């Protein structure tokens, strides 16, 4: 078992402490519901992935998985660079100290303000998703009298099965279809300021099979060569996507970065030898952040309904939408554990629900947990990616929870909890117009 695997065990089920700090202490200090991230594990995961993969392959963290500035800073300490998709993510990456040459910007509907910010910051590359966007980059770069490196995002003709959500091989808003790119003709002279000099492909997410990563990588590296031959562009940078997963549900197994390395490193070696100087990029969000986060909720009430046990907690799916069930009709449970320090008792099936007025607010369904009672802390594990920022936190006006990063045995608040005033402040009360008197008199309302 590698050092990294050992650390993964550290935060797993039934552990009542994180880096020596009791969960109960964190809950009391910061309140619940609460997201807690293991900063040391974030850094170790980024380092471990980098070390397992070819030295020429740079790991870019997809901030969409968890955009907290301190989460990214912990990953950066492990050597991760930044892949961003909005103005705020760009500013977050810069605030955490990422140099512009270690930032790429992608997304299918970039605004002019976003493109302008990329140009002004001097990011390594804008990943361009349509020919119209390329025209926009050309115009904005020309207005600034400079050139901006652009990677063409290609929507591959092939979808490789094994990803829980495939992006390629389908009509998609992402990227430009492979056949259109290959038929685009010479792109070298067409743009004076948009410096098209690379290829980006993202095949899908939640991949837990190293063989699928290998097939994707083989396809993408070959496609990059075909695009370069067909369009004449340089390959300054090739981004092979990623989509490495973490196990959430029963029967899913850890993806071992060493297995991934064993399979893709020879491909990268051959490509790097044939293309000296080309930057090779892998993007990763979930794999880097997923295992390092725990959603901590406190049971408010425990009761039975028609033969099933319910623990109603202070946090729910408005902070953890993924727990509802990602793309599946059958509810499957994230790994979970009782975090309170007490004699637990034998597991029995529990439904853990949140405070929302919808039956969909089901965090765990018939999950094997010790007998729960009010005041207990329950942790939803492997929850560091696509948590609050990918959840409807404003539903029922609860707002977003506090977020804490534990690093070197010390806990730091890295996002404060939304307070009622935070939610009410942006709203404006408009006095309703007076109804016309004839309606009032007649009793009819408009
Ligand atoms: C283009 C692109 N890159 C990176 C990511 C991050 O994926 P993951 O969190 O699976 O690593 C996504 C997620 O949807 C994506 O669409």
DSSP strand (E) fraction?
Answer: 15-25%
Low-confidence stretches: 1-13
> If helices are DSSP runs of H or I spanning 4 or more residues, what is the number of helices?
13
CATH class designation of the largest domain: Mainly Beta
Give the full name of the CATH homologous superfamily of the largest domain: Lyase, Ornithine Decarboxylase, Chain A, domain 1
Oligomer: single chain
The CATH topology assignment of the largest domain is Lyase, Ornithine Decarboxylase, Chain A, domain 1
How would you characterize the largest beta sheet?
9 strands, mixed
- The chain-level structural class is alpha/beta
Query: Mean of residue pLDDT?
Result: 93
Number of domains: 2
Overall strand count: 22
| Overall spatial form | globular
Report the helical percentage. Answer: 25-40%
Distance between the termini: 71 Å
Give the ligands present. pyridoxal-5'-phosphate
GO molecular function: diaminopimelate decarboxylase activity
Active site: 357 (proton donor)
Modified residues (N6-(pyridoxal phosphate)lysine): 64
Family: Belongs to the Orn/Lys/Arg decarboxylase class-II family.
Would you give an account of this structure?
By secondary structure, the chain is an alpha/beta fold. The chain has 2 domains: 195 residues, Lyase, Ornithine Decarboxylase, Chain A, domain 1; 186 residues, Alanine racemase (TIM Barrel, Alpha-Beta Barrel). It is 29% helix and 25% strand. The protein is built from 13 helices and 22 strands. The strands form 4 sheets. Strands 3, 15, 16, 17, 18, 19, 20, 21 and 22 form a 9-stranded mixed beta sheet that branches. Strands 4-5-6-7-8-11-13-14 form an 8-stranded parallel beta barrel, surrounded by 6 helices. The protein has a two-stranded antiparallel sheet with strand order 1-2. Helix 9 runs parallel beside helix 10. Bound molecules: pyridoxal-5'-phosphate. Pyridoxal-5'-phosphate binds next to strand 14 and helix 11. The site of pyridoxal-5'-phosphate has 13 residues, from strand 14 and helix 11. Keywords: Amino-acid biosynthesis, Decarboxylase, Lyase, Lysine biosynthesis, Pyridoxal phosphate.
